[in-house]
Design a protein that fits this description.
4-stranded antiparallel beta sheet, 5-stranded mixed beta sheet, alpha+beta
């Protein structure tokens, strides 16, 4: 291997994204005191560039500008340059993205922010081209102009920075409401959300279109609460359109990040762990309600993809799969009709191309993104074959083309293991294991929980990221909240107390580290974190749920499980901080609205006791068979129940030596039952409808 001409300060990092830039001619530094000390000593502004490894335009700007020696010389002469992986440092990304949005009214990645040596932003943007184009100034012109302004207009720079800093601090203070949290908030949010529903294509709004997993989860709860069939139709229509669209990988499983069009056809091709965690859980819940075969197939397609492509040998889940391969976005995923004919033979190719909408001209730069526009019944009639014959042919063709695709150059994979995203996927695997009767999924959940506890925990604190045997960075609120939720779900689906005990320990640590005793709400960073220009809070769902929302939801569940009112009071304080904003912008609060639905309900409390795991399994499966979002489940072996501190499990003997279920509300229980059918009657409707 030839020696690199350039090597900068990123060479000792573990982030694949940072290492991609370690041999740029730009003298990059990682975020840290060394870079800011240099900026202060030389009185230079800081150029902060934030991106992530699966970001297409990050790669474009790197190739056009950061690998260009003339542009790099300008950057090195005029600035101290810092490169940040937003997945490692969401705290920095959140603060400086808010600043860029204030300055430019839009945001995105790569993010380019100019800071004073004290870290205060004064100018910023996203992607800049190497020359003036797209009605955008070229990056060299921006570099020169900003440096001149920093030298010659120090007073203006200071005033801009102070103004931005004050606004960032104001954003972090919250705006609590004294109004009671009532059903009216849920009804108003529902009305606001469905106003932008796309009845043709599913989803909300126009292009680009992001899968609205958290909003649809709220709508699913709304359907259960109200019985409104129109709500279920919106959910099912959107789920079908997404699963049929090009945003779903019909050969390998898993969802791409988002669609560039309104009809889910052309994706931005990267695959993110968090999207697939949230979407697999949504489709799982939709399957519980509708028993839709498509929903089950989609869940298994996602989770099997994660096990095959995105799982470390130790059980951790990787972060992302790139959009690009061989320098072209989507090249790994698209098809020429000639390739398909050659691989399948004429007869099978005709059926495959008709079902997956493959044409001579293609639908993406002359190639074809597989997508489904007609039902299998319609395609069978058009081709004069039986439906089961067509289904068998399509399944065989998918296997052949998948194996052929495996021989292509694969997109790069970011093998960072991030605690928060692992928590989301852990919860999905745990639920899927019991609902779909897939013990391999339950085993994947156990292995993941064990991996995080053993590799991303130190001295009672969680860490953010793990790569190549190195775990680093203090965990953020979302890491604690998402992982605790995953652990609680793993306990509720297995009855293994270890996971609940770990969850309770981490919950108390989360409150201690992140709770704002003065104003309420959780800070994004803990007390032990480095001091940044602002200590922010976040209530909005973005690509992932807000840490505050997930924390509040899991605290409500734990309050019911443990009987601790203090947990419930903390959750209600979060709702008060966010309620007014959620009423105005409901599509940004899907997770929080689902939590409030739980708060306003009378949750079912289900205790199950038995001799061993096999003994309690039939009753546990019956509980999880139906969509019953407002519940807590306390499964236990009978000797554990006898010593448990959980109110639900106290004085809960087995009946006649058989596994026994107790269905309770406010710890007042119905007659204990030992048969799944009797348990089903006590739990009520399984919410199954045909779809």
């Amino acid at each position: 291997m030839e020696p690199h001409e350039f090597t900068n300060h990123l060479i000792h990092e573990t982030s694949p994204y940072l290492l991609q830039h370690a041999h740029n001619p730009v003298d990059w530094y990682p975020w840290g005191e060394e870079a800011f000390a240099k900026a202060r000593a030389e009185n230079k502004p800081v150029l902060l560039s934030i991106g992530y490894s699966a970001c297409h335009w990050c790669h474009v700007m790197a190739h056009e500008s950061f690998e260009d020696e003339e542009i790099a010389k300008l950057m090195n002469d005029l600035y101290v340059n810092i490169k940040v992986d937003r997945e490692e440092r969401p705290d920095l990304d959140q603060i400086y993205m808010s600043a860029v949005q204030m300055m430019t009214h839009h945001g995105g990645w790569p993010m380019t922010v100019f800071l004073t040596p004290e870290g205060v932003p004064f100018y910023g943007g996203t992607y800049f081209p190497p020359q003036d184009r797209y009605n955008m100034p070229g990056f060299p012109r921006v570099l020169i102009s900003v440096a001149e302004a920093y030298r010659e207009r120090a007073q203006d720079i200071a005033e801009t920075g102070t103004s931005l800093l004050n606004e960032l601090r104001r954003l972090s203070q919250g705006s609590g409401s004294d109004q009671p949290i009532e059903q009216e908030l849920l009804d108003a949010a529902y009305t606001g959300i469905v106003r932008s529903y796309d009845s043709t294509n599913g989803g909300f709004g126009g292009a680009p279109k992001f899968p609205p997993a958290m909003t649809l989860e709220f709508l699913l709860r709304t359907y259960v609460r109200t019985g409104n069939k129109d709500t279920l139709q919106m959910i099912s229509h959107t789920c079908r359109k997404m699963a049929d669209g090009g945003i779903y990988d019909h050969l390998g499983g898993g969802f791409h990040r988002y669609a560039t069009d309104a009809r889910w056809l052309v994706p931005h091709f990267e695959k993110m762990l968090y999207d697939n965690a949230l979407l697999s859980r949504l489709y799982l819940h939709q399957f519980q309600v509708t028993q839709s075969a498509l929903s089950r197939t989609t869940v298994e397609g996602v989770l099997d993809y994660v096990l095959r492509e995105m799982t470390d040998t130790g059980g951790g889940f990787y972060s992302t799969q790139d959009a690009d391969s061989e320098g072209h976005e989507g090249k790994f995923f698209v098809w020429d009709i000639g390739e398909i004919r050659s691989a399948l033979g004429e007869a099978a190719a005709v059926l495959f191309c008709d079902y997956y909408n493959v044409t001579e001209h293609g639908n993406f730069e002359g190639k074809n993104i597989l997508n489904v526009t007609r039902t299998i019944e319609d395609v069978a009639v058009a081709n004069r074959v039986a439906v089961n014959e067509l289904a068998e042919s399509l399944a065989n063709s998918r296997r052949i083309l998948f194996d052929l695709r495996e021989k292509r150059v694969k997109p790069d994979r970011d093998e960072k293991i991030i605690t928060a995203w692992n928590g989301l996927m852990l919860a999905s695997f745990a639920e899927a294991g019991v609902i779909l009767k897939r013990p391999d999924y339950t085993d994947a959940a156990r292995r993941n929980a064990k991996f995080v506890l053993e590799n991303l925990s130190r001295d009672g604190f969680l860490l953010r990221t793990y790569k190549d045997g190195v775990a680093k960075f203090n965990a953020y609120l979302e890491d604690y909240a998402f992982f605790v939720e995953g652990l609680v779900t793993l306990y509720e689906t297995t009855g293994e107390f270890r996971w609940l005990n770990e969850a309770l320990t981490l919950t108390d640590r989360m409150i201690e580290e992140f709770w704002d005793e003065e104003n309420g709400g959780f800070f994004f960073t803990g007390k032990s974190h480095e001091t940044l220009i602002v200590r922010s809070k976040d209530y909005f769902d973005n690509a992932t749920p807000s840490g505050n929302s997930v924390a509040a939801g899991v605290l409500l569940r734990l309050a019911v499980l443990t009987g601790k009112d203090s947990y419930r009071n903390v959750a209600i304080a979060v709702f008060r901080e966010a309620a007014d904003t959620a009423r105005r912008f409901p599509s940004g609060f899907g997770y929080l609205l689902s939590d409030i639905d739980f708060l306003l309900s009378t949750p079912k409390e289900v205790a199950i006791v038995g001799r061993d795991a096999a003994d309690i399994e039939p009753l546990l499966s019956e509980v999880w068979r139906r969509y019953l979002p407002n519940k807590v489940v306390a499964p236990a072996l009978v000797e554990e129940a006898a010593t448990s501190q959980l109110p639900l499990l106290q004085d809960r003997p087995m009946l006649e030596g058989r596994a026994t279920a107790y269905v309770c509300e406010h710890y007042t229980c119905k007659q204990p039952v030992t048969e799944p059918q009797a348990l089903s009657a006590q739990l009520g409707s399984a919410n199954a409808v045909t779809s």
